[in-house]
């Protein structure tokens, strides 16, 4: 399903060409594809309709760009519109002049409120604040216990007793003030928007504590119902914003747009994993790319910039294209990539990568990378420079030295050879050509332009999608050789 | 060895960016942003009601005379596009999903809906929900039957187990609960409270323990005491992580080894879930051989229509539905009631 939209738009874009501007019929056809993509991403029907009419206005009368195909132009417009909606009226958390700043979390059962409460506390702690948690979910068995356990992990205190949620919240805030804590986070029980009694209860909690911020915790896998939930909670509590959870799932997360579309309040935080640290401010441009299924190149680039040694990468990337890439370069790159995090996680951010490729990368664990490292380290300097000289006896020596088998060494060498050939072909195409390297250069130029706010985020990921298309395809084939892993991660490592 | 390719793809992309960023110094004029509406949709449309069948017929054929004329003209009978648009909207708003909806609409268009649109739609949906829904509570001679519960985070696995335990105990069975969610904080505690409430036995271990060993111990206890059924909880996990799915497959293997026998594997699914439910079902089916779905939280405004797509595509039947917070609010799934509620607001 990934990249479905850009592919489909590219397919119809042939018929859109050769005219000065998009005709109404062209726009209809293109928007029909956009509609499908949005519905597949779980954007609510009414929001889809309103969104499309806004995009239509944007497209009508706009002259066709010289540098973009009509399909790309449509995507650009759609993407810009998404970013504007998701990112407008962004919320900057300010702190109350008379502490504590009170934050109320509400949402459906199972959206992830309790975990989010702990994550939010950790986030504030990292901002140099002294957070305090209030466990006002007295309905679900062991919810208080869960919050206590999580809070202990991050070194934050929890207030709770067994009276009523309203009393707990009120006493908790008073206690926080007494203790001099400056941020208080109230975790409430999950409730259905149509459950009047429980909605009144959360309203009462809100009136008793007059929170500075009220956040709806919204599950990214939610379907069409997101609008009802968001609307009712907004009417009851007057939300200041939303926190979206479970962004590590493979859902496209259209619910975020649905909720944003009816409530008109920004999404402030996003939770992207099971670890308490997997939590950060929400990035509208990334969400837009995700809803459209275009990968998340920006996060990748950001991660790269943070962790990679740019000189090393640039140098070996240069050699890669000239075809003089050695196993030493490969090791240097492998180490750079490893610094960025798990391969599976990185692949998820790459646009234009097939699902098989993604899951293959997700299966690669540290053990396998260590094995590769061991193999390469067991080679002599000359062998690493000129892998062709590695004959049978060298192979068995390397296998012994690295504690692997000859077939593993063979496999590595074979893959490396194929890759080198591929690199050389790309290099020959020349940097200005339309080949993948050329695409990459243009991608980078766009990424550069992005900084100047002139291009939508994720639009370059379209180009990157094409750029990575050819390596990705050969990767899909190679994946079949890989043994299905029987490795089980112990729960603690998750 | 896929690593090689993966690394290269990554490095090529990132390296390319780094290199070219240095070369490129192109400036562009800042773009003028169009003003955007604060709220896209002010009033949330309620799902169009297909109401009870008669009312629906009236609504769908508001232009009855035109409809009749078209019908008399066309050889194989037909429905008009306006009606089909209503059908499409109803299905999409219930999360049935685009492809299943398109198929159903196309089949109505083709058949011409001879019994009327609402009846034909109802029939089409019921045909989609025609898998075998019997639940197995008996294992082969000498084995302990196990029900294994899987699903993503926050769908209500532990709660569903608590309620089902109560149900079995009411029906006169003895039950051991296996607190296999050793990951989430206080999950075992939550299940223990259900055990106390329902009078079931429970086997639990400390947080971070191996879930397989918890299940194994539960089987041991169940066999020693001659218990009728083991209900095994597992940690919620996203369905796009191979490691987590492998872990689940391992738990299932342990549960299915002597003396245990997994007679049902339930995927617990939150009715508010959108299209991701399909990918959840696909992955959990592959990893743990899911035999049925427990559809929870149907008491809200969500209709859980995605189970239609799941059953059409993967043949996994819904067996229980959760319709409230009370202990008796987990009931046996009834396709007719479900379809009727799908078609009503």
What is the name of the CATH superfamily of the largest domain in chain A?
Answer: Signal recognition particle, SRP54 subunit, M-domain
Order of helices and strands of chain B: HHHHHHEHEHEHEHEHEHEEH
User: Alpha-carbon distance between the termini of chain A?
Assistant: 27 Å
Amount of helix of chain B: 40-55%
CATH class of the largest domain in chain A: Mainly Alpha
Shape, per Cα inertia axes of chain B:
globular
| Intertermini distance of chain B | 53 Å
CATH topology of the largest domain in chain B: Rossmann fold
CATH architecture of the largest domain in chain A: Orthogonal Bundle
Number of beta strands of chain B: 8
Considering the chains and any ligands shown, give keywords for the structure.
heterodimer, A: 494 residues, alpha/beta, Four Helix Bundle (Hemerythrin (Met), subunit A), Rossmann fold, 434 Repressor (Amino-terminal Domain), eight-stranded mixed sheet, flat, disordered C terminus, B: 345 residues, 2 domains, 12% strand, globular
Structural description of this entry:
The complex is a heterodimer of chains A (494) and B (345). By secondary structure, chain A is of the alpha/beta class. Chain A has three domains: 4-87, Up-down Bundle (Four Helix Bundle (Hemerythrin (Met), subunit A)), CATH 1.20.120; 101-294, P-loop containing nucleotide triphosphate hydrolases (Rossmann fold), CATH 3.40.50.300; 299-493, 434 Repressor (Amino-terminal Domain), CATH 1.10.260. Chain A is 59% helix and 8% strand. Chain A is built from 23 helices and eight strands. Chain A has helices at 4-16, 24-40, 45-59, 70-87, 113-126, 143-154, 165-179, 196-209, 226-237, 254-263, 284-291, 297-307, 310-322, 327-340, 343-349, 355-363, 366-377, 381-385, 392-402, 406-428, 436-451, 459-467, 469-479; strands at residues 101-106, 131-136, 158-159, 183-188, 213-219, 241-245, 267-271, 279-281. Chain A has an eight-stranded mixed beta sheet, sandwiched between helices. In chain A, strand 2 (131-136), helix 6 (143-154) and strand 3 (158-159) form a beta-alpha-beta unit. By secondary structure, chain B is an alpha/beta fold. Chain B has two domains: 63-128, no CATH class; 144-343, 3-Layer(aba) Sandwich (Rossmann fold). Chain B has 13 helices and eight strands. Chain B has helices at residues 2-23, 53-60, 64-73, 81-93, 98-111, 117-128, 157-170, 187-198, 211-225, 242-255, 276-288, 306-314, 335-343; strands at 144-150, 175-178, 201-203, 229-232, 260-270, 292-296, 318-322, 330-332. An eight-stranded mixed beta sheet of chain B has the order 3-2-4-1-5-6-7-8, sandwiched between helices. In chain B, helix 8 (187-198) links the parallel strand 2 and strand 3. In chain B, helix 9 packs parallel to helix 10 and helix 11 crosses helix 12. Chains A and B meet through helix 2, helix 3, helix 4, helix 6 and helix 9 of A and helix 1, helix 4, helix 8, helix 10 and helix 11 of B.
């Amino acid at each position: 399903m990934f990249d479905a939209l850009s592919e489909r738009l590219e397919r119809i874009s042939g018929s859109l060409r050769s005219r000065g501007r998009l005709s109404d019929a062209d726009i209809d056809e293109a928007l029909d594809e956009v509609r499908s993509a949005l519905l597949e991403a779980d954007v609510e029907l009414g929001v889809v309709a309103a969104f499309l009419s806004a995009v239509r206005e944007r497209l009508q009368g706009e002259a066709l760009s010289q540098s973009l195909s009509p399909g790309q132009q449509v995507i650009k417009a759609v993407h810009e519109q998404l970013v504007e909606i998701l990112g407008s009226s962004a919320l900057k958390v300010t702190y109350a002049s008379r502490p504590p700043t009170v934050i109320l979390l509400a949402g459906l059962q199972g959206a992830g409120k309790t975990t989010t409460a702990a994550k939010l506390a950790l986030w504030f702690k990292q901002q140099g604040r002294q957070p305090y948690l209030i466990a006002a979910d007295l309905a679900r068995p062991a919810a208080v216990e869960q919050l206590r356990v999580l809070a202990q992990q991050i070194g934050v205190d929890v207030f709770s007793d067994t009276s009523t949620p309203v009393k707990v919240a009120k006493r908790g805030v008073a206690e926080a003030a007494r203790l001099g804590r400056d941020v208080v986070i109230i975790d409430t029980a999950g409730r259905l928007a149509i459950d009047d009694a429980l909605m009144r209860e959360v309203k009462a909690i809100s009136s008793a504590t007059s929170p500075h911020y009220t956040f709806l915790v919204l599950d990214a896998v939610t379907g069409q119902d997101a609008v009802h939930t968001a609307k009712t909670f907004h009417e009851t509590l007057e939300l200041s914003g939303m926190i979206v959870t479970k962004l590590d799932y493979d859902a496209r997360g259209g619910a975020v747009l649905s909720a944003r579309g009816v409530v008109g309040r920004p999404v402030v935080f996003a939770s992207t994993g099971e670890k308490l640290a997997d939590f950060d401010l929400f990035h509208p441009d990334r969400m837009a790319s995700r809803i459209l299924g275009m990968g998340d190149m920006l996060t990748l680039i950001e991660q790269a910039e943070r962790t990679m040694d740019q000189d090393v990468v640039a140098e070996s990337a240069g050699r890669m294209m000239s075809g003089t890439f050695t196993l030493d370069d490969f090791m240097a790159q492998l180490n750079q990539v490893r610094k960025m995090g798990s391969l599976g996680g990185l692949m998820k951010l790459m646009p234009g990568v097939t699902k098989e490729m993604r899951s293959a990368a997700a299966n690669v664990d540290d053990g396998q990378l260590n094995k590769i490292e061991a193999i390469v380290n067991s080679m002599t300097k000359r062998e690493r420079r000129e892998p062709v000289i590695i004959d049978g006896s060298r192979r068995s020596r390397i296998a012994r030295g690295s504690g692997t088998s000859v077939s593993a060494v063979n496999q590595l060498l074979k893959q490396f050879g194929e890759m080198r050939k591929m690199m050389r072909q790309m290099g020959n195409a020349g940097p200005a050509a339309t080949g993948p390297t050329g695409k990459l250069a243009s991608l980078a130029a766009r990424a550069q332009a992005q900084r100047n706010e002139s291009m939508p985020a994720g639009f370059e990921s379209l180009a990157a999608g094409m750029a990575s298309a050819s390596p990705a395809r050969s990767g899909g084939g190679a994946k079949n050789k890989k043994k299905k892993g029987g490795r089980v991660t112990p729960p603690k490592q998750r | 060895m896929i690593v090689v390719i993966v690394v290269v793809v990554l490095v090529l992309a990132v390296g390319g960016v780094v290199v070219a960023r240095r070369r490129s110094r192109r400036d562009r004029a800042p773009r003028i942003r169009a003003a955007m509406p604060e709220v896209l949709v002010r009033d949330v449309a309620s799902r169009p009601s297909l109401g009870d069948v008669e009312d629906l017929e009236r609504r769908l054929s508001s232009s009855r005379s035109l409809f009749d004329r078209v019908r008399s003209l066309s050889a194989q009978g037909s429905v008009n596009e306006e009606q089909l648009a209503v059908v499409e909207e109803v299905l999409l708003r219930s999360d049935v999903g685009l492809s299943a909806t398109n198929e159903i609409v196309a089949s109505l268009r083709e058949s011409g809906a001879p019994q009327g649109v609402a009846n034909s739609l109802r029939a089409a949906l019921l045909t989609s929900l025609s898998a075998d829904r019997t639940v197995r509570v008996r294992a082969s001679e000498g084995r302990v039957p196990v029900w294994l519960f899987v699903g993503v985070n926050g769908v209500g696995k532990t709660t569903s187990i608590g309620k089902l335990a109560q149900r079995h105990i009411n029906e006169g069975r003895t039950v051991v609960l296996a607190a296999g969610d050793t990951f989430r904080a206080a999950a075992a505690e939550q299940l223990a409270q259900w055990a106390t409430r329902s009078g079931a036995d429970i086997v639990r271990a400390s947080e971070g323990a191996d879930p397989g060993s918890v299940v194994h111990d539960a089987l041991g206890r169940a066999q020693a005491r001659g218990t009728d059924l083991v209900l095994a909880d597992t940690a919620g996990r996203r369905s796009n992580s191979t490691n987590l799915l492998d872990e689940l497959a391992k738990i299932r293997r342990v549960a299915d080894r002597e003396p245990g026998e997994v007679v049902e594997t339930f995927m617990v699914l939150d009715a508010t879930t959108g299209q991701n439910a399909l990918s959840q079902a696909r992955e959990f089916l592959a990893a743990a051989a899911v035999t049925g779905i427990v559809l929870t939280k149907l008491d809200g405004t969500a209709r859980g229509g995605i189970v239609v797509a799941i059953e059409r595509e993967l043949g996994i039947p819904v067996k229980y539905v959760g319709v409230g917070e009370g202990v008796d609010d987990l009931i046996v799934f009834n396709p007719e009631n479900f379809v009727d509620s799908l078609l009503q607001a």
